[in-house]
């Protein structure tokens, strides 16, 4: 959605906007096969609403009350065992979250990352607004394997105990950047997060194709980005 007010701030989601999942799908499918489950089970179950409901409101990865270590250390397999029963090969250890967050499996959209640097140097305020998670039980390491140099603010759900699409989470960005809703353009790959931003008066770019999203961002900012 393109507005007419001059844009002063650009706010980025992380996963699906800066972080690419290209190449990780095959690893998730291999995990599913090892567990004796349908090929898309590990990916869909690890991020699905059923798993969140099974965990309950007081146990949340994105709100910081649980960590990746907690889930990969047993909770995820407990859930799968309850759902799939004897079909599950529970002698296998799988790590669906860390596969795309650490080491050689991390893929960053370089062209999108470059837009952060270009816009920041042009005087735009930049922020990341992400439903993020702690990787370790000590709550010290979060999953942001990208260059944060050119972000004025990084707002993470697990640190704030708020998450998208809660309006209060978005409003933290407005306060910290010191901008009005109509002065923001926000990039995200989930419709519910885009809808929440638009209700607050933010301009939005629904990211389905990275290069097309960058072209839209050029229109908002009047800056050549690619």
TrEMBL record:
Pfam families (UniProt xref): Hydrolase
Claim: Amino-acid biosynthesis is one of the keywords in the record: no
Keywords assigned by UniProt, alphabetized: Acetylation
CDD domains: HAD_sEH-N_like
Protein name: HAD family phosphatase
The species this protein was found in: Caenorhabditis tropicalis
């Amino acid at each position: 959605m393109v507005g007419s007010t001059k844009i002063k701030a650009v706010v980025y989601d992380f996963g699906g906007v800066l972080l690419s999942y290209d190449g990780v799908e095959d690893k998730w499918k291999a995990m599913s096969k090892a567990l004796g489950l349908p090929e898309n089970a590990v990916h869909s179950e690890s991020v699905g609403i059923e798993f969140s409901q099974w965990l309950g409101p007081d146990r949340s990865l994105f709100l910081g009350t649980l960590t990746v270590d907690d889930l990969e250390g047993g909770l995820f397999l407990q859930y799968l065992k309850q759902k799939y029963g004897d079909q599950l090969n529970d002698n296998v250890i799988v790590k669906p979250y860390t596969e795309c967050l650490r080491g050689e499996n991390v893929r960053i959209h370089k062209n999108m990352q470059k837009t952060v640097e270009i816009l920041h140097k042009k005087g735009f305020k930049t922020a990341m607004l992400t439903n993020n998670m702690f990787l370790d039980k000590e709550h010290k390491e979060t999953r942001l394997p990208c260059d944060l140099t050119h972000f004025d603010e990084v707002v993470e759900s697990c640190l704030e105990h708020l998450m998208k699409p809660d309006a209060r989470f978005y409003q933290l960005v407005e306060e910290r950047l010191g901008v009005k809703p109509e002065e923001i353009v926000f990039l995200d790959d989930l419709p519910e997060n885009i809808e929440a931003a638009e209700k607050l008066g933010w301009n939005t770019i629904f990211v389905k194709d990275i290069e097309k999203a960058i072209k839209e961002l050029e229109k908002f900012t009047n800056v050549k980005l690619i």
